[in-house]
Design a protein that fits this description.
Two copies of one chain form a homodimer.
Chain A: H1 2-10, H2 24-35, E1 46-51, H3 54-63, E2 75-82, H4 88-105, E3 109-110, E4 113-114, H5 119-129, E5 135-144, E6 162-164
Helix pairs in contact in A: 2-4, 3-5
């Protein structure tokens, strides 16, 4: 099981994709990993939109200033939260981390591009993907084959961020 | 790398601990996994308090209604966020998921007990661990040896939560 830790430590954001498609079974495995996240009182306030349609990927690319890699992504996943549930943001963030890790595990690159809490991003995503008003897209996660597979993650370990027993 | 996905799917919340201590190197590995999470603009707005002091664990146990397993935990980690940073909540939630997965990978059980956004929990945690006012404890994560190591996670896969291209 040690490779789980290795996988966590070797995951990093990937923003340059080859444009190749993603295997559909892999996309389902990635979303399944998202649903394995914990949630407050096990409410599971999440839904997932798997986008492989090139037209929609391109429209989102045009609408979102920090998701310009969508035009070369093989797919994207939108993690959506039920805004009626108090803890939807943290629950959907945990699901997102599982999705990023699972994409990495399966040999893909991915990157979390924030949508919530930016109204100027939420509205075009809602419109493009016909998301109901009480559901909020937390992010758009472009997924693809990394152009450069040899990139190593930066080591973000910082001992000054660790406190023992008290701050 | 497939075991990364297996690890994600087999992780589950553990709430009954033997009371045995946790190896200190393992606690550092677990926190290191937390720091490997992505964060908005790589700001890394997190800090981690590793608690092994039995007196503090017991005081938190008394103060927190949903963290009563702390008296049998070998340790706890508090994931704290810098409230001056806009995206601290989602960033710290992603770090928390990495912590839960790494604890699982190393053979421990753990559970996310929410602190934020409950003022009645934030204040006693802040007081007990001397957390500065601009820092907010997102959660307390008790970690320990599971009493029952044979528990299998419930399968939370739910096809109705998946949408293709549009909602």
């Amino acid at each position: 099981m040690q490779t789980l830790v290795e996988g966590i430590l070797s995951r990093h954001s990937v923003r340059k994709f080859t444009g190749d498609p993603i295997n559909e079974n892999d996309l389902n495995t990635i979303v399944k990993a998202g649903m394995a996240a914990p949630s407050a009182m096990n409410i599971q306030p999440w839904s997932f939109i798997i986008i492989t349609d090139k037209g929609i990927l391109n429209n989102l690319c045009k609408a979102l200033p920090y998701a310009k890699m969508l035009d070369k992504a093989g797919a994207a996943i939108i993690v959506c939260g039920d805004s009626k549930e108090a803890n939807w943001v943290v629950d959907c963030a945990a699901a997102t981390e599982n999705i990023l890790l699972a994409a990495h595990a399966l040999g893909y690159g991915a990157v979390w591009t924030a949508v919530y809490k930016y109204e100027s991003r939420i509205e075009p995503v809602r419109k493009e993907c016909k998301i109901p008003n009480d559901i909020i897209p937390l992010n758009v996660i472009p997924i693809g084959i990394a152009v450069d597979k040899n990139v190593k993650p930066i080591d973000k370990y910082n001992e000054s961020k660790i406190h023992k027993n008290i701050w």
